[in-house]
C-alpha cells in the first residue's frame, strides 16, 4: 500500500434466539500463509462489493513482531485500495477506504488467535473496531463514501496495483480463517456472539463456510473443522 437489510432489533432477536436454543459450532477451514512475496489467497465474493455499509469479521493468529506492517484484508480495484485492514507498525489496527486511514488503539494482539470485526456505514461515517467481542470508541470516517465494485479480495498480500507489486515486508504470515462480510452493520450483540463461536447468520458478501478460496504460492489449507468454542453464559449487555 502506498502509504434494505435486516434491522438491528430483528438481528438481535435472532441472535438471542439462537443463544437460547443452544450452541451451534462454527466450521471453518484454516488457511496457513507462509513467508513469501507471492503467497496469497483470493476469495470470490457472493456479490459485488458495492457497499455503503459493511461488517467485516475475521480470525487470525500470527507470530509477526516488531515494527512491521501486516496486511489483514485487502480489496483492490484497478486503481484504488478500496478496502484495506492493517495492523500498523505501532500495533494499532486501521481501515483504509480509498484514502487516508482510520486508526484504532487496541490491546496488544498476542500470537494466539484473535477475532477482529470492523463496521462502517456511509450515512453517518460511524466506524467501529471490535477485538474479541469488545468494541473500540467509534470514529467518524469517510462519511458519504461508497466502496466500489470490480475488484479482488486478497488475503496475505497488499497489491499496490491490480494483483501485483507485492511487498514481503507488508505480507501476512500465519493462520487466517473465519472471514465473513455482510453488506450492513451488525449490532454489537451479534458481534459478541460471533466472537464466542456462535454462527447465527449467513454472511451475504463473504461467507467463509461456502466462499471459493484460490491459493497462490506457499499456502496450506487445513481440513474444515469445528472451532470447538463453548457457549457463553454471561450477560451480553
UniProtKB/TrEMBL annotation:
<dbReference type="InterPro" id="IPR001759">
    <property type="entry name" value="PTX_dom"/>
</dbReference>
<keyword id="KW-0106">Calcium</keyword>
<keyword id="KW-1015">Disulfide bond</keyword>
<feature type="domain" description="Pentraxin (PTX)">
    <location>
        <begin position="26"/>
        <end position="227"/>
    </location>
</feature>
<dbReference type="InterPro" id="IPR051005">
    <property type="entry name" value="Pentraxin_domain"/>
</dbReference>
<dbReference type="InterPro" id="IPR013320">
    <property type="entry name" value="ConA-like_dom_sf"/>
</dbReference>
<comment type="subunit">
    <text>Homopentamer. Pentaxin (or pentraxin) have a discoid arrangement of 5 non-covalently bound subunits.</text>
</comment>
<keyword id="KW-0479">Metal-binding</keyword>
<keyword id="KW-0732">Signal</keyword>
<dbReference type="GO" id="GO:0046872">
    <property type="term" value="F:metal ion binding"/>
</dbReference>
<dbReference type="InterPro" id="IPR030476">
    <property type="entry name" value="Pentaxin_CS"/>
</dbReference>
<protein>
    <recommendedName>
        <fullName>Pentraxin family member</fullName>
    </recommendedName>
</protein>
<dbReference type="GO" id="GO:0005576">
    <property type="term" value="C:extracellular region"/>
</dbReference>
<dbReference type="Pfam" id="PF00354">
    <property type="entry name" value="Pentaxin"/>
</dbReference>
<comment type="similarity">
    <text>Belongs to the pentraxin family.</text>
</comment>
